[in-house]
Design goal:
alpha/beta; TIM Barrel; three-stranded antiparallel beta sheet; binds 2-phosphoglycolic acid; binds zinc ion
């Protein structure tokens, strides 16, 4: 068995320049696996808590006192490692050990096992996988909300995915072509546009939501593609960041308007229909399973997706499935805690016929494990952004994975 022989750890910095935790797991004294914990800006209420007392240094120093407990474990055994973490931290949200430790330790362990066993990371995670289906890249090309500055759209992310593409290279190239084309469209409208970008590499212009989606659609058409069937659009509404629980209203501060839950439902439904969206993430706030169910029922060609709604939590996706509250589910390992938790979540989604979309966070590293996690969980899309080193690293890894020879092609999205 591949045995964990040592563990190193350090404070490093993420793509936003904030401190985070990186862990090295060494198997059999020589095989190094490494993982760095990402972090979100629009964090769901029910997510794992990244740091003890919100302090990376405290989290790390606590970990140093207990890390020997993990020495001697099988680095390829995700459940064994998960159980050992749970012995130290019995809380549901990893507030005692810190979700960043649960994340980095479990991913570094599989990374190290993959090197010692000389098989790809995704295959260690899912040994039964006989062929590889590649996820479509779902790229953020224009952003606002919690990821960009004042004057940008209230909605967090305007996304595209090139379902027309037959290979991953073609898909990546098409997304970046449209990202470039969009810049020209923005310049014509926002005369003071400085080419500024949000945290995930999407353009951050001084325009309102409706203009933003219009410009994205135009860029797709100018590049020669049909937004109804070839390069489809999506929106991450990140509605919980607009939701005012006290007054039970959605506040669009950029536009200076509010929407009641009924108006928000209607607004989201109109955007889905008018722009043929393939993807609508968190169109309602994180507790509104009922209105999510209405959208899901009425828009079978759109993946009505839960991010803050589900927080990569198996119990929450079970509730969502029982209410038919979504057709898509975002998987972010650090929302769940350990990689074992995240894989269980994906298994639950797959058995409920809810499509999995593996996702980056807005605060990222250049790690590319999520590309393998997307393959192992048979995700239909990977949400990674289009430009920026920490985004491109995930996309380039998919190109490397596509060289392995067991490739069946791109994910099947025929029903949407
Ligand atoms: P976050 O945003 O990583 O800042 O939470 C991404 C998202 O909401 O999908
Ligand atoms: Zn989201």
């Amino acid at each position: 068995m591949p045995e964990i022989t040592s563990i190193k750890d350090r404070l490093v910095f993420n793509s936003r320049g904030d401190k985070t935790i990186e862990i090295d797991v060494i198997t059999d004294n020589r095989y190094l696996g490494r993982a760095c914990a990402p972090s979100g800006a629009s964090v769901g209420m029910f997510e794992a808590q990244s740091f003890v007392n919100n302090d990376p240094a405290v989290t790390l120093s606590n970990f140093r006192n207990i890390k020997n407990k993990f020495i001697g474990l099988d680095s390829s055994n995700l459940q064994g490692l998960h159980n050992a973490i749970k012995e130290v931290d019995k809380t549901d949200n990893y507030s005692k050990i810190g979700g960043s430790i649960a994340y980095a330790l479990s991913i570094a362990s599989i990374d190290s096992a993959s090197r010692s066993m000389d098989i790809p990371f995704y295959k260690v995670l899912n040994p039964k996988l006989n062929s590889v289906v590649l996820p479509y890249p779902l790229g953020n090309i224009l952003g606002g909300g919690a990821h960009a500055g004042p004057g940008t759209p209230d909605l967090q992310e305007f996304l595209i995915t090139p379902v027309v593409s037959k290979s991953i290279e073609e898909a990546i190239s098409l997304n970046s072509k449209i990202h470039k084309e969009l810049k020209k469209n923005i310049e014509k409208i926002d005369h003071k546009f400085t080419y500024g970008k949000g945290d995930e590499g999407g353009w951050a212009p001084n325009i309102i939501n409706d203009k933003a989606i219009e410009l994205v659609e135009k860029a797709i058409i100018q590049c020669g593609y049909d937004p109804k069937s070839e390069v489809r659009m999506g929106i991450d509404f990140a509605s919980s960041s607009l939701w005012d629980e006290k007054n039970r209203i959605y506040t669009y501060s950029r536009e200076g308007i509010t929407r009641t839950p009924e108006e928000q439902l209607e607004y989201a439904a109109n955007l889905i229909s008018n722009y043929h969206l393939i993807y609508a993430e968190d169109p309602l706030h994180e507790e509104d399973f009922d209105n999510m169910a209405i959208l899901t029922k009425e828009h079978p060609r759109c993946l009505v997706t839960g991010d803050d709604l589900l927080v990569t939590n198996k119990k929450r996706v079970k509730i969502a499935a029982s209410k038919n509250a979504c057709s898509g589910a975002i998987l972010k390992v650090n929302q769940a805690g350990t990689l074992y938790d995240a894989i269980n979540f994906a298994n639950e989604c797959n058995s409920d016929n809810i499509k999995v979309i593996t996702s980056h966070r807005s605060g990222e590293s250049v790690d590319n494990h999520i590309s393998h996690i997307a393959i192992a969980t048979t995700s239909v899309m990977i949400k990674t952004g289009v430009v920026g080193g920490e985004r491109i690293s995930k996309l380039n890894e998919l190109i490397r994975i596509s060289e392995y020879g067991l490739i069946e092609g791109m994910a099947k999205l025929s029903n949407v």
